[in-house]
TrEMBL record:
Bilayer-crossing regions: 53-80, 86-106
Name of a matching Pfam family: DUF983
Organism: Flavobacterium aquaticum
Listed name of the protein: Uncharacterized protein DUF983
Keyword Membrane: yes
Length: 120
C-alpha cells in the first residue's frame, strides 16, 4: 500500500511502476493544462481506457479539494478568536486555488490506479 502511494506521487505507471503518466512531474507548475502520455513508454499500458474515462476524476478532485479546505480550516482555526471567523474563507480559497494543478494531476493518477488491471 505504501509503495502504491509512493508510485502515485512519483507519477509512475500503475502497471510497470517505471513509465511516467504525465510528461512533467506532479509538482511542475505551468499555465497550460497538464500534458498526459497516451501510453506508458515502458510497458505500453493505455492510460485513457475509453472516451470520457476521466469524468470520474472530477469527483476525486472534489474530494481532494474538500480535504484540503478542512485541513486548512483546522490549521488556521487556532490563530483566530472565534470558532468560525470569516477571514478564514479567503485563506481556504487561496490554498485551493494554489493547489488546483496538483489536484488535476493527482485526481487523474488516483483514478487510473483505481482501475488498474491486476494479474494473478
Amino acid at each position: 500500500m505504501l509503495k502504491t502511494i509512493i508510485n502515485m506521487f512519483g507519477n509512475k505507471c500503475p502497471n510497470c511502476n517505471k513509465g511516467k503518466i504525465f510528461e512533467k512531474g506532479l509538482l511542475h507548475f505551468s499555465f497550460s493544462f497538464p500534458k498526459m502520455h497516451e501510453n506508458c513508454s515502458n510497458c505500453g499500458t493505455k492510460f485513457e481506457k475509453e472516451p470520457g474515462f476521466f469524468f470520474g476524476a472530477m469527483f476525486v478532485s472534489y474530494g481532494l479539494g474538500v480535504a484540503e479546505a478542512l485541513m486548512t480550516y483546522f490549521i488556521c482555526m487556532p490563530f483566530f478568536e472565534e470558532t468560525f471567523d470569516l477571514r478564514i474563507i479567503p485563506i481556504i480559497g487561496a490554498v485551493i486555488l494554489s493547489l488546483t494543478l496538483v489536484n488535476i494531476k493527482l485526481s487523474r493518477i488516483i483514478w487510473i490506479y483505481m482501475f488498474k488491471e491486476y494479474s494473478m
